[in-house]
Here is the input.
Amino acid sequence: MSLLAVEGLGISFGELHAVRNVGFSMKPGEIVSVIGPNGAGKTTLFNMISGIYLPKSGTVHLGGEDVTGMSPHLLARRGLSRTFQNLQIFQAMTVLENVMVGYHLHERGPVIADLLGLSSSRRRSHEAEEKARMLLERVGLVRAAEKEAGSLSYGALKRLEIARALALKPKVLLLDEPAAGCNAVETEEIDHLIAELAADGIAILLVEHDMKMVMRISNHIVVLDFGEKIAEGDPATVSRNPRVIQAYLGTQAAEVTYAVG
Amino acid sequence: MRLSKQATLLVLAALIVVAPIFFPSGYYFRVGSLLFVNSLAVVGVVILTGYAGQISLGHAGFAAIGAYACALAPVHLHVHPSIAAIIGAVLSAVVAYLVGRPILRLKGYYLAVASLGFGILVSMVLANEIAITGGPDGIKVPELGLRAVLADWGLELTNAQFWYAFSGLVLLVGSWLALNLYNSPTGRALRGLHESEIAARTVGVDVAQAKLVAFMISAVYASVSGSLLALQNRLITPDIAGYMHSIEIVTMAVLGGVGSVLGAIFGASILTLLPQLLTVFQEYEQVMLGLVMMLAMIFMPRGLLPSIVGLVRGRGE
Ligand SMILES: Nc1ncnc2c1ncn2[C@@H]1O[C@H](COP(=O)(O)OP(=O)(O)OP(=O)(O)O)[C@@H](O)[C@H]1O
Ligand SMILES: [Mg+2]
Here is the structure.
C-alpha cells in the first residue's frame, strides 16, 4: 500500500489554476521528484500536501488516512515533514536550537515543568540537544551549532532546514529545492544524504531544478506544466517524452537530454 | 551577548541587595518596590512579546484582576490576602484563556486590538460597579500581615523596607521562572513561532495553543504585579486597569529590550525612575518622557540594554 497518495489535487488563486487535477503516490523508501518550469505549481502542490494551503479539490492520504486540509502540526504528528524553497529559518536562534525545535514533538512536556526548570524538563532538553547534534553532524553543520542561524550562508541554511525536518523522524519528507544555492560539493553531499534517507525507508518527495541530480536519484518523476501533470514515469521515460522536452525548451531541455545521456 | 540564567539572577539579586546602601531616605524604598512591581509585569511581557512575538495592550486588565482580588476576596470570601492574590492569579489565567482562545487563532495584530478592548472593558466594569468595587474612588485593601510575622521572629522592617524586600523577592522568582522557560522545550517553541509560524507548525508546534500558553503565563505575571501593588498601597482605584497602564507595561519592556529579562527590567527602571527625575521639567514632564522614549526607539530600536551593551563592546575592540 502507498504511504502517501495524492489524488485529483487542485487549487486556484483568482483566475489562475495554479495546480489542477494532480495525482501520484509513493511508497516508503521511494524518491519521487516533481519537476517543471518556474511557476509550474510545484511549491503550491507541496503547500497543499503539507497542510499550508487548503486544496479546492482532491484528496491527500497519509498511511491510508484522509489528511486533506489537515493542519501542518497534526500532519507532523503523523510523520510528514518538509523544507521550504524560500527558507523558513528561526534566524535569531542558534543553529542547534533550530534543530531542537524540530524535536518539539519528542521533547515537549508539561509547561509547568519547563517553568520550574524541573529535572524532567532539563532531561528532555538534554536528549533533544544530543540528537540535534547528531543530525547537525549528518548535514555537516555541527561546528556551527552555537552560531546564530541568521549568520549562516544560504547553502548552509538549506542543510539546516533538512536537519530540522529530520528531527521530526518523518516517514514522508518533502524537500523543496534543497540544493538551490549550494556549490557542487554541497550538492553532492545533499544528493548522498537523500539517497541515505530513502535507504532508511523515508519516502522523499523532491522538487529540484538540478536535472542531473533529479535524473540520478529519482525512482519516479512527475512533470508539471501550468499546474497540470503532463507526464510521469521513471527518469528515462520522462526525459524522452516529447511534451516534457517541449515544456523545457531552451537551456533546460538540453540539460534533460544531457543528464540521461 | 546573552547572560546565562545564573548570571542574570546574580546581577539582579546583587542590584536589589546593594541599591539600598545608596538610598538617601526611606522614600527610595517605595520607589524601589514600585519598580519591582512594574518589572514583574514587564517580565511577563518578555514571555509574551519577547519570546512569542505577540503583543497585548490589555495587560492592565489582568493587573486589575489581581489587585481587586486582594481587595474583594478577603471581604467576600473571608480568605487571607495571600490566598486572595492566588485566586486573582488563577482567575487571570482563566480569563486569559477565554479571551485569548478565540483571538489567538487569528494572525497579526488582532491580539493587540482585542486585548486593548478587554482592558477597557475591565476598567469600565471597575468604575461602574460602585456597589462592589467602590467605583472611581477606589477601595481599601487589607494588610498582608507578613511584616508583623517577621517582626515576631525578630526581623523589624519599616513598611517601605518590607515591601522593597518582598517585591524584590517576588521579582527574582518571576525572573527565574521566565529564564527557565527560555531554554526549555516550550520556550524554544515560542521563540520559533515568533520567527516563523509556518516552520513552527510544520515541525509539530500547535501554534494557537503555544500562544495561548504564553498569553496565560504573562497574564498571571500582570495579575501578581497588580496584587503586590494593591497590598502595598492598601488602596486600589480603577486607574490600574487603564489603557495607559497597559501601554506603559509594554513600553517599558520594548524600551529596555523585550528579548531579555534583564533588558526589560532595565526599561522598567528607566520609566519608573525617569518621571521622578523629570519632575524638574514640571508641566513638560510628560513631553520630556515622550521625547526620551521616541529618541530611544529611533536610535536604539533593539532596546536600550542590547544597544548599550553593543556600543560598549564595539568600543572595546
Ligand atoms: N499564495 C498565492 N497567491 C497567488 N498566486 C500564487 C500563490 N502561490 C503561488 N501562486 C502562483 O501559482 C503559480 C505556481 O507557483 P509555484 O510557486 O507553485 O511555482 P513553482 O513551480 O514552485 O515555481 P518555482 O520553480 O519558481 O519555484 C505561480 O503563477 C504563482 O505566482
Ligand atoms: Mg517553487
In short: DSSP finds twelve helices and ten strands in chain A. Strands of chain A lie at 4-13, 16-26, 31-35, 57-62, 65-66, 80-82, 172-176, 203-207, 220-225, 228-233. Residues 88-167 of chain A form one domain.
